[in-house]
Structure formats: structure tokens, C-alpha cells
Write a structure and sequence with these properties.
Structural class: mainly alpha
Strand content: under 5%
CATH class of the largest domain: Mainly Alpha
Number of helices: 22
Distance between the termini: 69 Å
CATH topology of the largest domain: Ribonucleotide Reductase, subunit A
Helix content: 55-70%
Order of helices and strands: HHHHHHHHHHHHHHHHHHHHHH
Number of strands: 0
Number of domains: 2
Radius of gyration: 26 Å
Shape: globular
CATH architecture of the largest domain: Orthogonal Bundle
Largest sheet: none
């Protein structure tokens, strides 16, 4: 059909044609067939799966707080993109089976090299300056090559994914530049790392496989074999990560203290949730790596998607606490000792399934009458609108997490009571030797609350309440209280 024929074709009353998804000329043009679409979508899926796994592999051991939070967010975004691609492939006469199959050995090698990056600078360079830009380029090429009418659902999917890929790349570029300014970028290789990755990508025919394949050279950059490290690490803003000197829950549940003072313990509780992404990332990564079938570890993809959403929620909660302190003008790194003893103990002493059991057991307790509703009430009574707001959403998130627990944990047991008993027993297996940490000089279990409270009062222009200053209840001495709270749910 000629262009003149198309120009002479008119809609009734001059209304927009083809529901606005394309003009006649675009729709009448060529496009990718179903098999071609599926082939490219599967390579996108493989690339995003590798990206998701690599992000999970770094969350616990990455000491820099901002990178830990960024990886948590991006692992969630990528999990959502993977879900969209799986659904689209299933719509194209292809059941979502075999999606974990390697489409090209050189593409596999490309991602393996990034996974084995020797430090955060190289990892960031490889993922955010090479892999994700290549994914963006491939997705944009797909959008140009496919027919906008016949593959309208596929084009819509990319309109949802590409803006978030763009945001990830922009964040990564800013982070890479900051690391370089701090002397923590790829050092001493004169660009060899990025160049090698580019050659590997070319040898795979590009990320989408549409380019002419080049030869695959031997690795030019010396890297160690990848070995997963689930031991949590923190940067210099966490000077006393073994500190168990303050029992926030005990203070919060004491009716003799005012809500406006309690909100600062809640900010601490929220920021302390940095340890949940560290622990959850270890569950997900270790389960995936141990999987020997297409459903990765014997779990369907929905499990990994939902758990990654929860991981991101917990990272958000930590940042809510950070903002709570920052908006009050408090320098939290110098006043609040955020420990990593929970995630460290679980990651080092329990299996992934046992960690999941402990997570659910604690979440169950948070939904009891002494849990999230109570914290929201404290935030509301405090008169601090931000405190009320973050507890409102924290409560909503925990309701979602309770549903995730029912869907993916409780169903493995005959009864809820049996699921709770197993979770409690798993938590009992975790040995936290608080006295030994003190003997080893790792911490003094310093009670930092009075100094924080004095700083709060200084910003308020008030004299501290002696009763609040006198609070001195150690978490190390009262772990049983949290067990009792969890069990009451």
C-alpha cells in the first residue's frame, strides 16, 4: 500500500485513528514477529535477572549507607520489571518456563565479570555505566523495531520500564562521580575495566543479540572468583554497631513518658531497620543460588517479587528514621548507635528458611495490639505531623508484609501456631553474646539515649525532663521482652 493510499484514508469526522497508539503509516509498516519479540524479551529478562541477583549480592556487605539503600530500591524496581516481562512472554504463546536459561555464553560472562567486581567502584562502573545503558539502548531499539499496533502491549510495557531504568542510570552516574571524587572509583586500570566489559558485550552481539558478534577476548582485568559475603558491614557513621545499650521498645510502651519524646525512639527504631534489607537480601540471594530448577530454589517467582518488595519497604523505613532526625536538626551518627547484631546473627547462624521464619515471627508480633497501631497512635498524639505520617505508612506496609508472610511462609505449616513455634525456635538458635562483645572491646553497650535526648531538648529550647534522662534499660538485658511481644501476636 502506497503512502498516497494511506493519506487518502480518512476517519469519521477526522477523529484520531487506531486509538492513538500509532498513525496509519506506522501501523502499516513492518515490525518484529512474535518469535523475534520473545527472543529479545527473554534477553531483557535474563539481563534484569542478573542485575537483580547482583544487587542482592551487595546489600549486606556494602558498608556505605547510601549505596545499601540504592541497591535495595533498585532490586525492587528490577523485580517489578522482571514480573512485567514474564507476563508479556506468557502472552506471546510462550509459557514463562526456561526464562533463566542463558541466551548467550558471552552475555553470561559479561554479567559474571560485573558480579566479580573487586570493589564498589568497579561494580558501580560495570552495572550503571555499562550494563544498564546497554539495556536502555536495547529496549529503545525494540521499541523502534516492533510494530506499534500489533505489539502495542509490548510497547506499553517499555513505556513503564524505561523511565525507571533512566532514573537508575542517573542515580548510578551521580554515585559513580561521587565515589571518584572521594578516591573510591575504579583505580589504576586506566579504563581497562569498562573497555573489557564493552568488548564482552560486543562478543554477545549486544545485550539484545541484534548486532554482529565480535570475538571474545581473554579477560584483561584480573578479578577474583565471586564468593558471596552475607556479613553486614557499615560505614564510619555507625561507630558502635555492636551496641545494645538502649531498649527502645521498653521506653515506647512505658505510659509514664510523653509521646513527643517517644517519637525519637521511633525514629531510632525506623533507622535501625537498615538490618532487615541486609538479612532479607541474604535469604533471597542464597535461595536463588541454591536453586536447581527453573523456579529457583523451589519457589515461584511471585515469592521473590513479594519478598523484594518487603526488602525495599524496610529500607524505606530506615530512611524515614533518617529524615526524622535530619528534619529536627539532629546529627544522628554522633548521637544514635545503630547496631547490626540482629542481621549479623541471623545471616551467620541460620539457614535462609530459618531467617524467613524469624522474620515472619517478628512481623506477626508487630501486628499485635502493642505493635504498629500503637506506634501510629504515639505519632499522632505527639503533635509531630511527620511522625504520624511515617507511622501511618509503616503500619500499612506491615499489613502488606503480614499478607506476604501468610502467602509464602505460613502455608508451609499445618497451623499458624506451628509456624509461630518454628519461628520462635529458630530465633532461639541465634546466639548473641553481649558480654563477650564487651570483653572483646567491640562495644561498651553505651547508653546513648540521654545524650540524644539532651540534643532534642536543646533544639526545642527546653530543659530535659529528669525522668526521661534517667531511662537506662539495655536491650541486651531484655531480649525476652521482644520475644514475649512477638509471641503475643
Amino acid at each position: 500500500m502506497s503512502d498516497d493510499t494511506l493519506k487518502n484514508y480518512k476517519s469519521l469526522h477526522g477523529l484520531p485513528m487506531l486509538a492513538g497508539v500509532a498513525d496509519l503509516r506506522e501501523a502499516a509498516g513492518p515490525g518484529l514477529g512474535v518469535e523475534e519479540c520473545v527472543g529479545r524479551l527473554k534477553r531483557f529478562h535474563y539481563s534484569l535477572q542478573r542485575t537483580w541477583r547482583m544487587l542482592l549480592s551487595r546489600i549486606a556487605a556494602e558498608p556505605i549507607y547510601e549505596l545499601k539503600m540504592g541497591y535495595s530500591y533498585h532490586s525492587y524496581l528490577v523485580a517489578e520489571h522482571i514480573t512485567l516481562l514474564r507476563d508479556r512472554v506468557a502472552e506471546l504463546r510462550h509459557p514463562p518456563l526456561g526464562l533463566d536459561k542463558v541466551p548467550d555464553e558471552n552475555l553470561e560472562r559479561f554479567f559474571d565479570e560485573i558480579l566479580k567486581a573487586p570493589d564498589p567502584g568497579h561494580f558501580m562502573e560495570g552495572l550503571y555505566r555499562v550494563a544498564l545503558p546497554a539495556l536502555r539502548e536495547s529496549m529503545e531499539r525494540y521499541r523502534e523495531d516492533t510494530n506499534p499496533l500489533t505489539d502495542a502491549p509490548g510497547r506499553r510495557l517499555l513505556r513503564m520500564i524505561l523511565p525507571e531504568i533512566e532514573d537508575m542510570i542517573a542515580w548510578g552516574e551521580s554515585a559513580c562521580a561521587a565515589l571518584e571524587d572521594a578516591g573510591q572509583g575504579p583505580q589504576g586500570d586506566d579504563g581497562q575495566w569498562g573497555a573489557e566489559l564493552g568488548v564482552l558485550l560486543e562478543s554477545a552481539g549486544g545485550l539484545d543479540g541484534t548486532k554482529v558478534k565480535g570475538p571474545a577476548p581473554d579477560p584483561g582485568f584480573p578479578v577474583k572468583e565471586f564468593c558471596y559475603d552475607g556479613t553486614p558491614r557499615r560505614d564510619e557513621r555507625f561507630p558502635d554497631p555492636y551496641n545494645m545499650g538502649v531498649h527502645a521498645e521498653e521506653f515506647l510502651y512505658d505510659d509514664s513518658f510523653e509521646s513527643r519524646d517517644k517519637v525519637f525512639m521511633m525514629f531510632y527504631k525506623r533507622l535501625r531497620e537498615i538490618d532487615v534489607p541486609e538479612m532479607m537480601a541474604s535469604i533471597l540471594f542464597e535461595m536463588v543460588e541454591a536453586g536447581d530448577d527453573e523456579e529457583m530454589g523451589g519457589r515461584p517467582w511471585g515469592f521473590y517479587r513479594d519478598m523484594t518488595r518487603q526488602l525495599w519497604d524496610e529500607a524505606r523505613h530506615a530512611m524515614m528514621g533518617e529524615v526524622g532526625f535530619a528534619r529536627t536538626g539532629i546529627d544522628w551518627p554522633s548521637k544514635v548507635m545503630i547496631n547490626f547484631t540482629w542481621s549479623k546473627g541471623l545471616n551467620e547462624q541460620l539457614t535462609p528458611r530459618e531467617r524467613h521464619a524469624v522474620l515472619w515471627f517478628i512481623e506477626q508480633g508487630l501486628m499485635s495490639k502493642t505493635g504498629k497501631r500503637y506506634e501510629w497512635e504515639v505519632g499522632t498524639e505527639s503533635g509531630d505531623e511527620f511522625s504520624r505520617l511515617i507511622q501511618d505508612f509503616d503500619w500499612a506496609d506491615e499489613v502488606l508484609h503480614a499478607r506476604i508472610g501468610r502467602d509464602w511462609y505460613v502455608k508451609d505449616f499445618q497451623t499458624v501456631a506451628e509456624a509461630a513455634a518454628y519461628g520462635s525456635a529458630c530465633w532461639d538458635k541465634v546466639v548473641s553474646d553481649w558480654d563477650q562483645w564487651k570483653k572483646d572491646g567491640l562495644t561498651e553497650h553505651y547508653n546513648w539515649w540521654p545524650d540524644l535526648y539532651r540534643e532534642v531538648c536543646r533544639h526545642r529550647g527546653e530543659e530535659p525532663d529528669p525522668r526521661v534522662l534517667a531511662y537506662d534499660r539495655s536491650y541486651a538485658e531484655t531480649r525476652a521482652d521482644l520475644k514475649r511481644i512477638a509471641a503475643s501476636g
